[in-house]
Each structure stands twice: as structure tokens, then as C-alpha cells.
């Protein structure tokens, strides 16, 4: 049993028939951490998550969630976990309150109703209405509520803010932060970079069923391509800047300005610019989205 | 498991009420006309019918004037097919229906083992079926019927046991097939087809003796129907229940092994249909 890791996977492999979905996923999420799990559709995010809960059986490797192997003791894992699926489907013929009541009974009445009502109020959710009459966003709120209602040790959220308006997205992110403050580990997948940047302490990027990077969001961003805008006091040979190691010219404004992209350290560019009369120079920090795209390029999964 | 049973029964309550009321009204009609029907000389009528047609319906028609014959012809003979529609439909989608609608993924993320989920559903289905049969049994017992049909409560009850076993058998076959085939609809269609084919074969075997060796190994051959009024064949009943139990255990084993599907992954297509789909696209 690993005391420090909330989630630990070693060489996690999953096949759907002949199709291999996960090619040995190695992942470690610390207890009390908010971990963002990034990847485009089909990369293996949801498959990994469902292996963590054993709603699908892994074909290889090992998985430990809160010290339990989900394959051996799925009930122990699920008891301590709140889960929001990426493709949320709810029974339509019940009111929100009845559905939450059912889920709470499945949990052995772990949740108390004053907290449920409090969550419903914060999410501006009317639990008296039948599910089938709710909008997509309101159904998503029910999904969020049922994941949080029993104050789980671990939150596994697959695209938690899908279908929510920007204000409600903020509220959900706030709830995630509060759960973390309460000691919960949060593992959430998303393709909305801004929300990952806001709440995640570490980020894992999955590509074609393999983890390609695990890092802090800032470190990922720092390692990615930097862009710089430079203006000169007089005309210079802009094309010569492209010959500096790691520098490429994205665009030029006649011969007195340029927009550059720098791979790796910026030192060579600074030294190269010293030969010219520089009027203005500023760099742009890449967004996590740009980092993500740098990993994936225009290809998906 | 109790939560699963309760919830499944709640979901099936519409079907229970619909089937219970529908069959109850039918039984009420049957018991109310029994006394009048006794006045009709059916023997003469039957003799005017083609022999093959009479053979199809078996010996029961000739005992139409007895309570057992009446129950057989008007109720127990074809109730395996009629209530079988409910049993097969309900069992084919007992678990896979929820899987196809995508709701099972979230339910299975709660602290409920697959075993508890499976057996909770199975018990709830058996209870729902029992309730439907109970409604019809109680309707037969209404004073108007009880007095005119001249059977005891136990005699009325006996034919229900083979009917219950037969319905469980076909229902659990549908459940097993739903675990093996790509969709609940396909499992229901195949099981329903087998049920109807078996029913027709039992009748046709009375006309064509060559069919008898095949029919001898089919579930409806071991179905007593209205004959059970006179006494149960316990070995047939036990056999039907044993086969139903085997189907359920195999379905449970398969459910434990397989993945919960969300978006059709891990599914497969019948090759013939796959070819047609590809040709269409």
C-alpha cells in the first residue's frame, strides 16, 4: 500500500477488443493534490478514469487508488470517491431530489441533506424538477452535486464544467478548490486549459494512450516555445534573426519590427539582438493551450 | 442490494400496473362467462373444425367444459407467450438497457458491487413477474369465478408455478443473450423468436410427428399449463427452474467479466448487419 499516493498506475494497459486504448499509463497523484489530466478526445483520459473505478477491467499493469486495487476491491475505492462521468446520463423520470436520494442510498446515506441543499443552492439547482425537463447545464450540475455530496476523499471529475455557463464554471472550480482545502484529492480531466491553469497543481498530458508529460502548469509553460516582439530604431536585416539558433521569424513589419518564436533558451536571441539598435522588446508567455498544441500539433489523439 | 431491488421495482411499477390490470380484466372477463360457456355444446362445434387445426391445439379443447381445460385453453396455454413478451423485454434490458442509455456508468461508480447490482435486478424482476401473476391468480379467486369454476385456491395456484418457471427461463435466456450480444434489442428479438417458435412447434408436433423428437427437448414441452390443476410434475418444474438458474449464473459470470459500455466501445456488430451498414455509408 502506497501511503503518499492517492492514485498510482504502473504500466496500465487497456484493450477494447483488438484495439489498444492504453499503452502502459504510468501516473502518480499525491494525496491532497489537484491533478489536471489533459488530452484530446480519444487519447485515453476517460478510459484511464474508468479503469481507476473498475467500471472497465484493465488488461495489464497495476492500479492503486487510495491504497486499494480497484480490481480487487472496487467498492472500497468507490465508497471514498466522488465521480462525475464525461458523458453524463441520468434517469429522466425522476426529480433531481429523488435521484440524489437514490444515489445517497447507494452510498449507504454517506451524505447529509443540509450539505446537499447547500450545494444545490450554490449551483442554483432546483431539485424538485424532473430530470427530463432540465437543460444540459442543469443535468451537469446534478452530476457535480452527486460527486461532491458525500465529501469524498477523492474526486474524479471527467470534464466537470462541460455545458455550464462561465459563472457556474467558476463556482464549480471554487467547489473543487474547497474540496482540496478540505483534504480531498482531485483528479480531473479537461480540455479547457484556462480552468486547468487555475486549479491544477500538476498536469499530466496523455497522448495516444501514453502519458507524455507530467509537470507543474508553470513548468510546462516555461518549457514551451516563447514568442517575442522586437522593434528596432532603424531598418535591419530581419531575415538574419532567423539564423540565430532556435529562433524563427513568424512575421515582420517592414524592416523595423519582427515577431519571433524561440525554442528553448532565449539567451542566443538576446546576444544576437545586441548587434542592433533595439527600440522595444517584449516576450509573451505561452498559455497552457499553446503548450498543449505544441505537444499535439495539428494532430489529434 | 435492497436499494437496487427497490429502485428496479419502482422503475417497473408502470409495467406491473399495466400488465396486472390488463391481464386482470381479461381474467375477470373469462371467469364471468364461464358459466354461460358451459351451456354450449363444444363437442359438436369442435367436430366441425378441420382435424389438423384441432390437433394443433392439443387435447385441451376436448376438455373445454372442465375447469382445468377451460383454464388451459383460455389462459395457461398461451400465457407463456403473452406474459413472455414482458419477461423477455424486461430481462433483455434489465442491465444492458441502462448501459445503453448511459446511466449504468454512474450507478456503477457508486459503492455497489456488480454482484449486488446484478442479483438486485434479477430479484426485482422475479418479484415484478410474481406480482403480475399474483394479480391474475387473485382475480380468478374472485367469488364469481371461484364458485363457478369449482376449484380450490391451491388448485388455482398450481398451474402458476410452471408458468412462473417457464417465464423465468425465457426471461433469463434474454438476460444471458443481452450480456453476449451487442444490444438489448437483439437479445430480446432472438429470445422472443425462440419463444414463439417453440410455442408453434409444440402445436405443430401434434400434426407432424417428425417434429416431436425436437420438441421433446424444448422448454415448452416441459410446461404443464392448465393440467397442473390436477397435480404438479415436480421434476419438470425443477428442471425448468434449474435451466433458468443456469442461464442466470452464466449471465452473472459474463457481467462480472465484461466492461460497462458507455459509448458503444467494446461492442461488436453482427457481421451481416455490419456489411449492410458499411454498404449504406
Please describe what this structure looks like.
The complex is a heterodimer of chains A (301) and B (281). Chain A contains eleven helices and 13 strands. With 301 residues, chain A is α/β, with parallel strands linked by helices. In chain A, the strands form three sheets. In chain A, strands 5-6-7-3-8-9 form a six-stranded mixed sheet, sandwiched between helices. A four-stranded antiparallel sheet of chain A has the order 11-12-10-13. By secondary structure, chain B is mainly alpha-helical. Chain B has one domain. The longest helix of chain B has 36 residues, at 2-37. The interface between A and B is medium-sized, with 30 and 26 residues.
Q: What global shape of chain A is seen? A: elongated
Uncertain spans of chain B: 275-281
**How does the helix and strand content of chain B classify structurally?**
mainly alpha
Oligomeric description of these chains: heterodimer
Q: Taking all residues together, what is the mean pLDDT of chain A? A: 86
Count of the separate structural domains of chain A: 2
**What's the gyration radius of chain B in Å?**
21 Å
- Helix residue percentage of chain B: over 70%
- Mind summarizing the main beta sheet of chain B? none
Task: Write down the secondary-structure element order of chain B.
Answer: HHHHHHHHHHHHHHH
Amino acid at each position: 500500500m502506497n501511503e503518499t499516493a492517492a492514485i498510482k498506475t504502473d504500466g496500465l494497459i487497456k484493450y477494447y477488443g483488438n484495439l489498444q486504448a492504453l499503452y502502459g499509463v504510468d501516473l502518480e497523484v499525491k494525496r491532497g493534490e489537484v491533478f489536471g489530466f489533459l488530452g484530446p478526445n480519444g487519447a485515453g483520459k476517460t478510459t484511464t478514469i474508468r479503469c481507476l473505478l473498475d467500471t472497465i477491467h484493465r488488461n495489464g499493469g497495476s492500479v492503486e487508488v487510495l491504497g486499494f486495487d480497484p480490481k480487487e476491491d472496487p467498492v472500497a475505492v468507490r465508497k471514498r470517491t466522488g465521480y462525475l462521468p464525461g458523458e453524463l446520463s441520468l434517469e429522466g423520470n425522476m426529480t433531481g431530489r429523488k435521484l440524489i436520494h437514490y444515489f445517497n442510498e447507494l452510498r449507504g446515506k454517506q451524505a447529509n441533506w443540509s450539505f446537499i441543499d447547500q450545494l444545490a443552492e450554490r449551483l442554483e439547482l432546483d431539485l424538485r424538477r424532473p430530470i427530463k425537463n432540465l437543460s444540459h447545464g442543469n443535468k451537469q450540475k446534478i452530476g457535480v452535486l452527486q460527486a461532491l455530496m458525500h465529501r469524498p476523499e477523492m474526486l474524479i471529475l471527467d470534464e466537470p464544467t462541460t455545458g455550464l455557463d462561465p459563472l457556474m464554471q467558476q463556482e464549480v472550480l471554487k467547489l473543487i478548490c474547497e474540496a482540496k482545502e478540505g483534504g480531498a484529492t482531485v483528479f480531473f480531466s479537461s480540455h479547457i486549459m484556462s480552468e486547468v491553469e487555475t486549479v491544477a497543481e500538476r498536469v499530466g498530458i496523455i497522448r495516444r494512450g501514453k502519458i507524455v508529460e507530467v509537470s507543474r502548469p508553470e513548468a510546462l509553460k516555461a518549457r514551451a516555445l516563447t514568442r517575442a516582439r522586437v522593434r528596432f530604431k532603424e531598418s535591419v536585416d530581419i531575415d538574419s534573426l532567423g539564423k540565430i539558433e532556435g529562433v524563427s521569424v513568424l512575421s515582420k513589419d517592414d524592416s523595423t519590427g519582427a515577431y519571433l518564436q524561440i525554442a528553448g533558451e532565449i539567451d542566443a536571441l538576446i546576444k544576437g539582438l545586441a548587434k542592433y539598435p533595439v527600440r522595444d522588446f517584449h516576450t509573451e508567455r505561452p498559455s497552457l493551450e499553446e503548450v498543449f498544441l505544441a505537444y499535439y500539433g495539428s494532430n489529434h489523439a | 442490494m435492497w436499494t437496487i431491488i427497490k429502485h428496479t421495482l419502482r422503475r417497473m411499477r408502470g409495467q406491473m400496473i399495466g400488465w396486472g390490470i390488463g391481464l386482470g380484466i381479461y381474467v375477470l372477463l373469462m371467469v364471468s362467462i364461464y358459466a354461460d360457456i358451459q351451456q354450449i355444446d363444444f363437442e359438436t362445434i369442435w367436430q366441425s373444425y378441420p382435424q389438423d387445426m384441432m390437433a394443433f391445439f392439443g387435447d385441451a379443447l376436448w376438455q373445454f367444459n372442465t375447469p382445468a381445460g377451460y383454464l388451459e385453453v383460455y389462459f395457461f396455454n398461451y400465457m407463456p407467450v403473452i406474459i413472455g413478451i414482458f419477461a423477455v423485454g424486461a430481462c433483455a434490458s434489465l442491465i444492458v438497457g441502462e448501459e445503453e442509455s448511459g446511466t449504468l456508468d454512474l450507478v456503477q461508480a457508486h459503492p455497489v458491487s456488480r454482484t449486488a447490482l446484478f442479483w438486485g435486478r434479477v430479484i426485482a424482476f422475479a418479484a415484478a413477474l410474481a406480482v403480475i401473476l399474483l394479480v391474475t391468480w387473485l382475480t380468478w379467486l374472485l367469488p364469481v369465478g371461484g364458485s363457478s369454476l369449482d376449484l380450490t385456491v391451491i388448485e388455482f395456484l398450481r398451474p402458476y408455478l410452471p408458468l412462473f418457471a417457464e417465464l423465468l427461463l425465457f426471461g433469463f435466456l434474454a438476460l444471458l443473450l443481452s450480456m453476449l450480444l451487442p444490444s438489448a434489442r437483439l437479445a430480446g428479438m432472438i429470445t422472443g423468436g425462440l419463444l414463439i417458435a417453440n410455442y408453434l412447434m409444440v402445436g405443430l408436433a401434434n400434426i407432424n410427428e417428425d417434429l416431436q423428437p425436437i420438441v421433446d427437448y424444448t422448454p415448452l414441452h416441459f410446461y404443464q399449463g392448465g393440467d397442473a390443476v390436477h397435480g404438479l410434475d415436480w421434476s419438470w418444474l425443477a428442471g425448468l427452474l434449474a435451466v433458468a438458474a443456469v442461464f442466470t449464473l452464466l449471465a452473472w459470470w459474463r457481467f462480472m467479466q465484461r466492461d460497462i459500455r458507455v459509448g458503444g466501445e467494446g461492442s461488436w456488430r453482427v457481421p451481416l448487419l455490419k456489411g449492410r451498414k458499411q454498404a449504406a455509408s
